[in-house]
Design brief:
With 264 residues, this protein is of the alpha+beta class. It is 42% helix and 23% strand.
């Protein structure tokens, strides 16, 4: 794994606690108290913001995941872009701070985000009515979120998104906003993150890592070529200097040669 700048290492440390906490919460839902109605089939009215996930979120949590699974991804992405555009016109805020400050305005709405993730995990889903058995989770950092991530829980992992702590650039998600939930950070303080539920994420092709063996060979031949060129330059310079010295010596010899008189 390559070196990550210090600020990203701090984000990674923070995420590790987030991931562990959210995985534990996802597996420990209390029995659902929320009651779906005709006007609120996902029981979104029972969802509370700035709080951990609990039993009251169960119906909406899995219902939105199923809704994302059944939706056309292209249509969901377009709906997410249009909703966020409308929200920016109304609130005059960037998307991330708007989700934190006004979560009720986003509840159950489509969103479309792009950024980078630092780690992806997988875990078993809690018992639900939709046959969902496995979940994946990533923390995405967008341009307007600074060092604060949004959580993405999704159903299908693309092949080019590893289950690892690697930094992955160019991740795009289209899903539904559920709530802002609280998680413990590495500095023992409670943080708040938007929670997005989606079918999958899209990852742009990543630059291929250079094989270390090939890298070593490139370095060796580069150094060898440099040494040969250096010696060649020194040889040419020395030869030129020697030739110039010989010419100068010959001129001096011709000009300073003694004149002998023949004997009388």
């Amino acid at each position: 794994m390559f070196n990550i700048p210090k600020y990203r290492l701090s984000l990674l440390a923070s995420f590790c606690l987030v991931a562990a906490g959210s995985m534990l919460i996802a597996q420990e839902f209390e029995p659902a108290k929320a009651e779906p109605t005709k006007d609120d089939p996902l029981a979104l009215a029972f969802v509370r913001d700035h709080s951990p996930l609990d039993g009251n979120d169960n119906v909406a949590y899995y219902g939105l995941l199923n809704q994302a699974r059944e939706a056309s991804q292209a249509e969901l992405a377009e709906a997410g872009r249009q909703f966020l555009k409308k929200r920016r016109e109304q609130s005059k805020l960037l998307t991330f701070p708007d989700m934190i400050r006004n979560p009720k305005a986003f509840r159950g709405q489509p969103v479309h985000l792009t950024g980078h993730v630092l780690q992806t995990i997988e875990y078993d889903a809690y018992e639900n009515d939709y046959g969902i058995e496995k979940l994946y989770e990533s923390m995405i950092y967008t341009d307007d979120s600074q060092t604060h991530p949004a959580a993405i829980v999704f159903l299908e992992k693309p092949d080019n998104l590893p289950i690892s702590g690697d930094l992955i650039e160019g991740v795009t998600v289209s899903g539904y906003f559920l709530k802002t939930y609280v998680y413990p950070s590495s500095d023992n303080a409670n943080r708040v993150a938007p929670l997005i539920l989606a079918k999958t994420v899209t990852v742009k092709p990543q630059p291929e890592a250079i094989d270390s063996g090939n890298t070593n060979r490139f370095i060796f031949w580069g150094l060898a070529s440099g040494i040969v060129i250096l010696f060649l330059v020194l040889y040419i310079v020395q030869r030129s200097d020697r030739k110039r010295m010989i010419i100068e010596q010959k001129k001096r010899l011709d000009s300073e040669a003694p004149t002998f008189k023949p004997p009388a």
